[in-house]
Structures are given as C-alpha cells and as structure tokens.
Amino acid sequence: MDEQCPCLSGQPYLTCCAPLLSGTRKAETAGQLMRSRYCAFVKQSAEYLIQTLHPSKRRHDDAEQLRHSFIDTDWLGLTILRQELGQPVDSSGRVEFIARFLQAGRAGQIHECSEFVKEKDTWFYVDGSRQPESLPARNEPCWCGNGKKFKKCHGFHR
C-alpha cells in the first residue's frame, strides 16, 4: 500500500509531495508549496526548504540551522486553516496553518500566516507571522495520536 503523504492531503506521498521534493515537479499553488515544505520538515530535506525559500531571505547558515532543528523533532500533522490567493494565476498568496510536533517529548505547534510569492512561474515562501497557539483542551485527544487525553499525555508538560 502507498504511504500516505505527511501533509495529510489524503493522497499517496509518491504522487503528492514527493515529486516536488525531488524536483521533478513545481508547486502550482501557494498551498501546494506550503504542504510540500511541511513534508520537507518531516523528511528532513534542508535542501528543499532552502530552494523554496525566497532568495532574498536566505542566509549562509540556513542548512546548518535547519539540520539542527530536525534533531528530536517529530512532526505530527498539518492543518490548513485558510488560503488567500496563491492560485496558478496569482503572483502572491497567503496560507494560514497549524503544524503540530513533538520536540524532545514536548508537544508544540507552529500557528502561522505564511506569505508566498511567485516569480518566473516558481512559488517561494517569503515569511510568516506567528499566531497564538491553539492547544487541545485537557480532555481532548493528544496530538501524538496515542489515544490518551492531552492532560494524561503531553499536556502534563505545560
């Protein structure tokens, strides 16, 4: 059976984000680039993350910083909350998302409104503004998917 794509699109990884990460296909929308960048974090592809970062935002130590961020981080899921523009005919777009993770055993999330631009038919991530965290309630299921309530699992670290 095909591995489901980590971006939670419901599609097989080999036909969803894998062609983007391998460079055989370009993202057609800002949302597709957002999903593929999340997959790049899951798959620990610093190269893809740098390639899809707008050139004006790149720094000499990006690869080192990204590889360091991969240590002890397990990505648990991506939820796209809202998309504005970012379609194939657009030159810019915005995607609001929540990416959940465990880092060194602690539950966390990135809630961000990300800005994207398209230049010469290529989408790039420009930057994002962080939004307040939206943690599960104490009695809701934990993000890690083990079936325990958040308070009995990773919520106790808070």
Describe this structure in words.
The chain is an alpha+beta fold and 158 residues long. It has a single domain, classed as Nuclear Transport Factor 2, Chain: A (Roll). It has 4 helices and 4 strands. It has a 4-stranded antiparallel β-sheet, covered by helices on one side.
Task: Put the structure in a nutshell.
With 158 residues, the protein is α+β, with helices and mostly antiparallel strands. 21% of the residues lie in helices and 30% in strands. A four-stranded antiparallel sheet has the order 1-2-3-4, with helices on one face.
Main traits of this protein?
158 residues, Nuclear Transport Factor 2, Chain: A, four-stranded antiparallel sheet, 4 strands, 21% helix, 30% strand
Topology:
Elements: H1 18-22, H2 30-42, H3 46-51, H4 62-70, E1 73-85, E2 92-103, E3 106-119, E4 122-130
Antiparallel strand pairs: 1-2, 2-3, 3-4
Q: Quick one: biggest sheet?
A: 4 strands, antiparallel
Indicate the mean pLDDT: 91
Distance between the termini: 38 Å
**Count of separate structural domains:** 1
Helix content: 10-25%
Q: What portion of residues belong to β-strands?
A: 25-35%
Q: How would you spell out the order of helices and strands?
A: HHHHEEEE
CATH architecture: Roll
Structure summary, number of beta strands = 4
Query: Which value, in Å, is the CA radius of gyration?
Result: 16 Å
Strand order of the largest sheet: 1-2-3-4
Structural classification = alpha+beta
What is the fold-level CATH name, i.e. the topology? Nuclear Transport Factor 2, Chain: A
CATH C-level category: Alpha Beta
- Helix count, DSSP H or I runs of 4 or more residues: 4
Q: Uncertain spans, ≥5 residues at pLDDT below 50?
A: none
Described by the principal axes of the CA atoms, the overall outline is globular
